[in-house]
Amino acid sequence: MRVQVAIIGAGPAGLLLGALLHRAGIDAVLVEQRSAEYAPGRIRASVLEQTTVDLLDAAGVGERMHHEGLLHDGIELCFGGARHRIDLKKLTGGKHVMVYGQTEVTRDLMHARDAAGLKTIYEAEHVSLQDFDSARPRVRYQQAGATHEIECDFIAGCDGFHGVSRASVPASAIQIHEKVYPFGWLGLLSETPPVSHELIYSNHERGFALCSMRSLHRSRYYLQCPIDDKVEAWSDEAFWAELRRRLDPEAAESLVTGPSLEKSIAPLRSFVAEPMRFGRLFLAGDAAHIVPPTGAKGLNLAASDVGYLSRALAEFYAGSETGIAHYSDRCLRRIWKAERFSWWFTSLMHRFPETGAFGQKLQAAELDYLVHSTAASTALAENYVGLPLRD
Ligand code: APR
Ligand code: PHB
């Protein structure tokens, strides 16, 4: 098979890139190791920045999102037993975020891909990347015992943190920056109305808690937990009781509980691999970077990476190599700002056992400053709604 672009991984990054390239008239194939049924089952964050909404619209997959997504003009920070609203809209001159599940984004992208008759190779085994330092890269994989090869102009490594693309780059050509946090998030999804119409981020002496949602009748809640905690140790009742303890009295009182549809523990990590271009191979999304989930930047960064990449490739086929030459730098400028914000918001909202009383006093002072200073609230708000895409 011969295509212009071979995309490794059919997660949100690969699927969105495929859709954007199709709109630009560029021929691409997706190579995914899992089955088509597996991907939409994973549960991830749900807050879309305006730039992500714009990219989904540009890819032609925004219709259901605009219909079912919830526009949020603010978030609430809870500490010291009370909630404080951050008015995102007022502080950013009219911006907001869209609450729409990543599972739904993935589903919409998969439907659009099927409807357009675009090719995705699912259940590809032993995927390997060849000759991406030349003008004729190839992707090899096995399926049902047979070996196949795709010849292409470019490879897009959209295969997530554990994928083969980043691992194919010689260690001497790539720099890794990483921070692992000493706790995890225990998440629970339930068919219950959200406790509040906006998200609540709570800093409590027992640990962080987050009240989020997927829709007006489906809620997503999280609790900071020890890194070695086991999900089996948490009954639904224990989860709800702990969440109540970490909220203000009014929210605790109005919380509607129900059986969990899903419950899992995720570690928290900050990670950046740079650069993001190696000859004819580009990394995008979780293949190149991870943020801790506080502030929900993961999907938004994946979207902006593939936004830059699709534009760069369109420019290439129109005769200019400027876009691909600047791809890595453009992405990384934005990524490091989101890494900084996610690290800061995580540091502000969680309990760090090792910081002691002094660290906690500083955290309390910062929270107090944050909600009473327009300058500090504005810095939070403009990062939360998303920084502008720059050239
Ligand atoms: N060959 C082919 N496909 C692979 C390989 C491989 N060797 N390794 C992984 N994959 C596939 C995975 O099965 C998955 O479908 O690549 C896809 C990667 O998807 P994600 O991990 O979701 O990564 P990405 O698309 O960058 O997503 C970015 O989604 O995962 C969240 O937190 C993340 O919100 C962020 C966004
Ligand atoms: C989520 O809904 O899963 C979510 C929302 C906001 C975050 C993190 C996760 O900051």
Secondary structure class reads alpha+beta
Radius of gyration: 21 Å
Choose one word for the global shape. globular
Number of strands: 20
Total number of helices: 12
Average pLDDT, rounded to a whole number, is: 96
How would a textbook summarize the main sheet? 8 strands, mixed
Distinct ligands, ions and cofactors found in the model:
adenosine-5-diphosphoribose, P-hydroxybenzoic acid
Helix content: 25-40%
Alpha-carbon distance between the two ends:
34 Å
Q: Record the strand order, biggest sheet.
A: 6-5-14-15-16-13-17-20
Percentage of β-strand residues: 25-35%
Poorly predicted parts: none
General description of the model:
With 391 residues, this protein is of the alpha+beta class. It has helices at 12-23, 50-58, 63-68, 88-91, 102-115, 164-167, 236-245, 249-254, 298-317, 322-349, 356-372, 374-385; strands at residues 5-8, 28-31, 47-48, 70-72, 74-79, 82-87, 97-99, 120-121, 125-130, 138-143, 146-151, 154-157, 175-190, 199-202, 209-215, 218-226, 260-274, 277-278, 281-283, 289-290. It is built from 12 helices and 20 strands. An 8-stranded mixed beta sheet has the order 6-5-14-15-16-13-17-20, sandwiched between helices. The protein has a 6-stranded mixed beta sheet with strand order 8-2-1-12-19-18. Strand 18 and strand 19 form a beta hairpin. It is globular, with a radius of gyration of 21 Å. 43% of the residues are buried. It binds adenosine-5-diphosphoribose (APR) and P-hydroxybenzoic acid (PHB).
